[in-house]
Write a structure and sequence with these properties.
single chain, 15 helices, five-stranded antiparallel β-sheet, alpha/beta, Urease, subunit C, domain 1, 18 strands, binds zinc ion, 433 residues, 2 domains, five-stranded parallel β-sheet
């Protein structure tokens, strides 16, 4: 008799109905109405919806510890007056560990099994990701100015090379080269980052065209808008993931499509920091590869991809005065399959041969009954607390609402302790005026 690592009994697939799902070697091996087989572990889904898990394609997870600070400020004030001074004081391997544990706990609870992160001490983010059993594409921000990572651009590049080497052979965690943005990296730094990524065959992850102010600044400095500027120095390719991409003109959208650049749309962060609304339906229509991210939890203020995709779908309907501008199925695909495939992972669909990254969603709650159109109702009405089970690469990370790979009580306790230290520092700052 066949034997599976994991067997899910009586799940409900939106377009098919009740099924059993057999999982082997981290992949979906079989989907049938009934599977009679042995399994190392069996989950009885009792009719819960099976959906692909989410891919959070742009975030700064350790910033979980700075959640809620500097609310109601625009991006540059928020960064310069609040976030950078706090990071200068507090960011350390211990801070990054506590923030990452808190962030991954939240991500597992809300159904995410891949995140693309850019921050300091990413080796610590990698350790926690492996412990938690979640996929992560990691790189520290490369900048022209000194931080705790490095002093000069060349030193950043050297550190990025060492970091990439240190992750060689890992299955869940992979290195990414992360020049921070065209306004914080000179053309020379961007070129060196691009060369390193090409040499090591890695993805690049960068912030681009987030605010109107950035566009003006790049125009002044280089005589070009951000995407044209990146194109002119040979930076763009299908291995580049650009976060935000709010302010692009028609020709820039063509460049992005032609180069195969991946866009990480971050609607809630763009709304909260008043950066603007990226014309995502236009990108989709023109064949740009669009993915979704929350951005850091300090500018969102959470890592909840279900909420993010619901916001995305409604935002673009309203902004375009068109209820079809972003339909529920497109929104779900952007938040799942498009994210995984952007970094070469065959996941985001519940089909045989795909990676076993999926969630089970309970629909036995008042806000999901009666259930007529499961996908639309998940997109517009489900909450992350409806997510009952989360599976990454065939491993059960959460079952019946209980996270199995992290110590929730300890993590919340430590987050509160960090919160107290950070609060008293903020009080001191304020009293000094
Ligand atoms: Zn960001």
């Amino acid at each position: 008799m066949e034997r599976y690592d994991l067997l899910i009994k009586s799940a409900f697939l939106p377009d098919r109905g009740g099924v059993d799902i057999g999982i082997k070697d981290g992949k979906i091996a079989r989907i049938e109405d009934h599977i009679e087989a042995e399994a190392n572990y069996t989950i009885h889904a009792n009719g819960k919806l099976a959906l692909p898990s989410f891919a959070n394609m742009h975030t700064h997870v350790p910033m979980s510890l700075l959640r809620g600070i500097g609310a109601d400020l625009p991006l540059m004030d928020w960064l310069q007056k609040v976030i950078w001074p706090l990071e200068g004081e507090f960011v350390s391997p211990e801070f990054v560990r506590a923030g990452t544990e808190l962030g991954i706990l939240e991500m597992i609870r809300s159904g995410t099994t891949l995140f693309m992160d850019m921050y300091f001490f990413e080796e610590v983010v990698g350790e926690v990701s492996k412990e938690a059993g979640i996929r992560a594409g990691l790189g520290f921000g490369i900048l022209d100015f000194p931080t705790k990572v490095a002093k000069t651009p060349d030193e950043y590049i050297k550190r990025a090379r060492e970091f990439a080497k240190s992750l060689k052979g890992e299955e869940l965690v992979f290195p990414v080269i992360c020049p921070h943005a065209p306004y914080t990296c000179s053309p020379d730094t961007l070129r060196k980052a691009r060369e390193l990524a090409e040499e090591l065959d890695l993805y690049l992850h960068i912030h681009v065209a987030e605010t109107k102010g950035e566009v003006e600044r790049i125009k002044e400095e280089y005589g070009n808008t951000p995407v044209r500027h990146l194109e002119s120095i040979g930076f763009l390719s299908d291995k580049v993931l650009c976060a935000h991409m709010v302010w692009l003109d028609e020709e820039e959208i063509d460049i992005v499509r032609e180069r195969g650049v991946k866009v990480a749309h971050c609607p809630e962060s763009n709304l909260k920091l008043a950066s603007g609304i990226a014309p995502i339906p236009e990108y989709v229509r023109r064949g740009v590869h669009v993915t979704l991210g929350t951005d850091g939890p300090a500018s969102n203020d959470n890592l909840d991809m279900l909420e993010e995709l619901s916001t995305m779908a409604k935002l673009h309907k309203g902004a375009n005065l068109d209820a079809k501008a972003m339909d529920a199925r497109t929104a779900l695909k952007i938040a799942t399959e498009n994210g995984f495939s952007a970094v070469g992972i065959k996941a985001g669909r519940i089909e045989e041969g795909y990676e076993a990254d999926l969630i089970l969603v309970s629909t036995e709650n008042p806000h999901l009954q009666p259930l007529y159109d499961p996908i639309a109702q998940v997109v517009y009405s489900a909450r992350s607390s409806d997510i009952d089970t989360v599976i990454c690469r065939g491993k059960v990370l959460m079952e019946k609402g209980e996270v199995k790979t992290l110590d929730e009580e300890r993590i919340l306790h430590e987050a509160k302790r960090w919160g107290e230290r950070i609060s008293s520092f903020l009080d001191r700052l304020r009293s000094q005026g």
